[in-house]
Structures are given as C-alpha cells and as structure tokens.
C-alpha cells in the first residue's frame, strides 16, 4: 500500500499522516514538503522532479519486505496531482489517498467566491497558450502554475488581448509567514518577478464572477444549438454568414476550450461569437469601425467575450498570436494573400467562404502551398418561405463555396486516436 497525503495549504498533517511517516521506509515529495516534515532517519527520501525516477524508486521499494511508502503532495493529490501517475503505474487499489484542501478551493475561499463554476486549467509543464485562451474565453478561471508558465507569462498573453480581466495571484497558500493574495491587472502582473511557490492564479471577469446557482460543476454547459438564425445578430444589409454556411464552417473549425480562433473579415462577428459560445477564445478582425462596434454588441448580447480588432488583413494579422483554426469570410482582391497568411500560422485548420467562382482555385492553391490538404463543397440551399393563401414556396439563397484545409499531421494524429 502506498499512503498519499495532501499537505501545503494550511492544515497540519493529521495523526494518520504523522503515524505513517514514523513507520515509513521511503518518503516521496517536493523538497519543501520533505524539509518541513519530521522524517525518521532510516527512511529513504526522493525529491520529486521528473516522475519516472520517483516511480521506479517506489516500485523497487515495494518489492522489499516490510516496505512502507509515503507520498506527500500539495493540496488534493488527486486533482491534477500525482495520484494519476501512481494509479497508472501501480493501480488504484494500491493507493490510500488522504487529500488536503485543493489550492484552487483555498484561493477562491480567500476571495469569498464560489468556484463550482470555475474552469481549472493546468499550465504546469505545459505551453501556457492553452491557459491564456481559456482565460480569454471564460469569466472565471483558475490556472495551476509551473516553471515558465507562471503569473508573468500568463499576464503577458493577456495584456494586449483583454484588459478587462483581473488576475489574483495566490502565493504560498497556507504558509502563515509567506502567504500573499494579490489582485492585479495583466499589465501589472506581466512586469513583476514572481517567487516560488505561486500556488494558483485566478483570472476573473468580475462583471460575471457570480453566476446563477449551479447544479453541475465546471464551466457553463455548451449551447443547446448553434448556427443561429441571422436575426440573432446585429448586421448590416444582410452582410452576415448565413446559418447553413455557418453550420458547416463550425463543424470544420471544431472550436473547443483552449483553442484560439480567428474570424477574418468578420462583419457581424457571427462566426467568432458562435466559436466563443462553444468555449474557444475568439478574435474577430474587421476593417470597418462600425463593424467592430457590431461585433462587440453581438458578443455582449450572447454573453461571451470576443476580441474585436480594427484593421485590414493580412497586415493586421502580424500583431495577433497564432491561431488553432481560422475562418475567412471576406477579403476581396486580397483574399489569396489573406488565406496564405492564415494558412502559414494556423495550427489545425483554415476554413474559407467564397461567393465568386474565380476565387476558388486561388484559395485552394494558397492552402496547398502552405501544406494543407484543400477540400470544399458548393452549398446551395432553399428556405421555406410563406406565400399568400397559406401556401409555401422555396426561396433560394445565394450559392457559397466553403473551402477548407486541415494540416496532414493533425489528420494523422486524429486517425491514430481513433
């Protein structure tokens, strides 16, 4: 049996943990846990760094008669903690886990806020861009930090993209001498040198920090439907991606939590808003100033955040962080250059809506030149429309080519998972 005890957020080790440590033959934990705990002299010690050597040492110890292994971890070790690795290696039945208070729970408690509606993302040992995108897309996010993915890095990803957010940096939670809980703007947090250990960073849109009473924990449930009717958006002279086209575009974009989506030539921002409703961070690029206002109004009307960027593509794209997927709904003569610029930087897919037949080969060539596999369809739809006399006719919508490209490496990885 491997005994796993959560510690480090204020509560002292209980009598069970003290008794287990007194009999331990091997104790595993972070250096601060080992240094702050009375351990028997005969017990071996493993300072956690890379997991593989620690797991090998535990396995070797368990092979000996009379082995008693104790693992010390922060907070709840089953919440983005070592329990996953131990269970995968030794099986859940080999573990006796006694959790402490999770750092996320403690951080929100310090603010007097509930956290059943928070999105929790780990940046420990991971690219912080995912955490940044989650912070942009959701109003209440807790980020578990790590080297190279701490408050400064998180703030740097937010500072020019959402000044509306407030960061709460919780340092050394539970330490009576060193605990600090600080509220800062992203701009303030980005220029600070942060000591270890930063326990957790909360990213809040304070206007939406208190949600209604919940019955399911985590972020709000996804929308009941998508490809909303055009009447759901403010737009000018029917300059909006029609819902039939938007439905297939969303299917090919695949927006999800942690993604960043560009909507180029956004117009009303309908695609960006729908991507945000599905959990992605969204940037809408629009060259007209009144269009930027409509995008912001539409995002607010649907309760999501979309960063509206005023400028003309492809020039303005150089100031944006790399996207996972891109939708191009406008561009005129610049369309081939815009698609080429987007395709060079998109991690997963580019989707393009084109009305003019002459643009189709240009878009396909731009996608292929960037290493994508271009595909597409011609969408022709007719909607039911009333006629006098309580009868119905078919009203044809303008045909639209929807073209897309997916990086081969992404397609191959999805096939491997299947």
Structural class designation: alpha/beta
Helix content: 25-40%
Ranges where pLDDT stays below 50 over 5 or more residues in a row are none
Distance between the termini: 35 Å
- Whole-number radius of gyration? 26 Å
Question: Care to count the β-strands?
Answer: 19
Shape: elongated
Strand order of the largest sheet: 13-12-11-14-15-19-16
Total helical segments: 14
- Percent of sequence in beta strands: 15-25%
Q: Report the sheet with the most strands, covering strand number, pairing sense and barrel closure.
A: 7 strands, mixed
Mean pLDDT score: 91
Characterize the structure shown:
- This protein is α/β, with parallel strands linked by helices.
- It is 31% helix and 25% strand.
- It is built from 14 helices and 19 strands.
- The strands form 4 sheets. It has a 7-stranded mixed beta sheet with strand order 13-12-11-14-15-19-16, sandwiched between helices. The chain has a 5-stranded parallel beta sheet with strand order 3-2-4-1-5, sandwiched between helices. A 5-stranded mixed beta sheet has the order 6-7-10-8-9, with helices on both faces.
- Helix 10 links the parallel strand 11 and strand 12.
- Helix 6 crosses helix 7 and helix 12 runs parallel beside helix 13.
- The longest helix has 13 residues.
- The mean pLDDT is 91.
């Amino acid at each position: 049996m491997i005994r796993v005890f959560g510690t480090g957020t204020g509560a002292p080790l209980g009598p069970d943990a003290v008794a287990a440590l007194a009999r331990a033959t091997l104790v595993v934990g972070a250096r601060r846990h080992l240094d702050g705990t009375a351990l028997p002299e005969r017990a071996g010690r493993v300072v956690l760094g890379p997991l593989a050597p620690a797991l090998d040492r535990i396995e070797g110890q368990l092979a000996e008669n009379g082995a008693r292994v104790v693992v010390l971890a922060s907070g709840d070790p089953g919440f983005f903690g070592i329990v996953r690795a131990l269970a995968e290696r030794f099986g859940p039945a080999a573990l006796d886990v006694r959790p402490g208070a999770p750092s996320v729970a403690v951080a929100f408690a310090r603010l007097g806020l509930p956290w059943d509606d928070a999105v929790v993302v780990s940046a420990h040992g991971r690219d912080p861009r995912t955490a940044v995108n989650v912070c942009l897309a959701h109003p209440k996010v807790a980020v578990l930090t790590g080297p190279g993915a701490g408050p400064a890095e998180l703030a740097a990803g937010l500072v020019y993209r959402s000044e509306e957010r407030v960061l709460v940096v919780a340092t050394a939670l539970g330490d009576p001498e060193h605990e600090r809980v600080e509220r800062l703007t992203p701009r303030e947090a980005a220029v600070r040198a942060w000591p270890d250990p930063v326990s957790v960073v909360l990213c809040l849109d304070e206007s939406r920090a208190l949600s209604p009473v919940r019955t399911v924990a985590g972020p709000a449930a996804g929308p009941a439907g998508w490809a909303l009717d055009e009447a759901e958006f403010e737009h000018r002279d029917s300059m909006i991606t029609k819902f039939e086209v938007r439905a297939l575009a969303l299917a090919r974009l695949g927006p999800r939590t942690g993604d960043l989506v560009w909507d180029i030539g956004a117009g009303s921002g309908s695609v960006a808003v729908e991507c945000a409703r599905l959990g992605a961070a969204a940037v809408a690029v629009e060259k007209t100033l009144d269009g930027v206002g409509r995008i912001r109004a539409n995002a607010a009307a649907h309760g999501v955040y979309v960063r509206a960027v005023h400028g003309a593509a492809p020039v303005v794209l150089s100031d944006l962080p790399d996207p996972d997927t891109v939708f191009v709904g406008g561009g005129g003569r610049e369309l081939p250059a815009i698609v080429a610029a987007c395709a060079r930087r998109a991690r997963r897919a580019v989707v393009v809506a084109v009305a003019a037949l002459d643009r189709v080969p240009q878009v396909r060539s731009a996608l292929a030149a960037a290493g994508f596999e271009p595909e597409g369809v011609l969408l022709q739809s007719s909607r039911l429309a009333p006629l006098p006399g309580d009868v119905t006719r078919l009203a044809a919508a303008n045909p639209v080519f929807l073209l897309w490209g997916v990086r081969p490496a992404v397609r191959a990885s999805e096939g491997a998972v299947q």
